[in-house]
Request: fold
Amino acid sequence: MQLDIRNQGTSEGTSQTPVASPRTASMATMTRTFSGSPAEASAWLRRQAWDRDDDVAALERAFRSGGVPVIEGEFRGFLLHSVSGTWLDRVFELSSKLFSPWRGKALDGRTASADNLVTWFGMLLLRAIAPYAYFRRRRGAWHAVTMSARVESSRVVAGLNVLALDYDAPANRPLLRSVRDEVVEIAPGICLGRAHVRARDGAYRVVQWFTLERLDASGAARPR
Reply:
């Protein structure tokens, strides 16, 4: 897969091209060299966690150039940015860098469903934010907050097919049912995702950016 993140603008229906800063331009050049290399894609995504302003624009362009991943297997996850505009952003980002409470996601193509994978600290953190949230223990890992998994058109980017992970499930508490993740694959086994919250008017707002990296049967990242 050749990743194309040439400046496309961030508003639907406009052809205006934003002026890129030197840092953004250098990142754009870097991402255009992925050419399907999982190692390079993974390294580039991890670097985005440390600089929010320019990097979110680069992530947006990468997301728009992604494809649909296979709905199967376990994926190691990492939170890149929390962009809700609330005090929770710092909580999520600091806890991710220090403790990594969120481990990733487990996808089941047979049942078209998915769970989040969390550590014990992640379980406690989620309990504090959403009491009585769904949890289960499976194969030594904590599964939390179930969701449906299917291929759909993006609710935010017109004309883009994504893996949609919808939290509107009976097992989840009402607070979580307005959440929807959209995930694309930018290199084999390397995915870029963003979490959305549905507002009262039905519009979806991006609140977090994250990565997913496919694991093999042993729980290790697949060879690159």
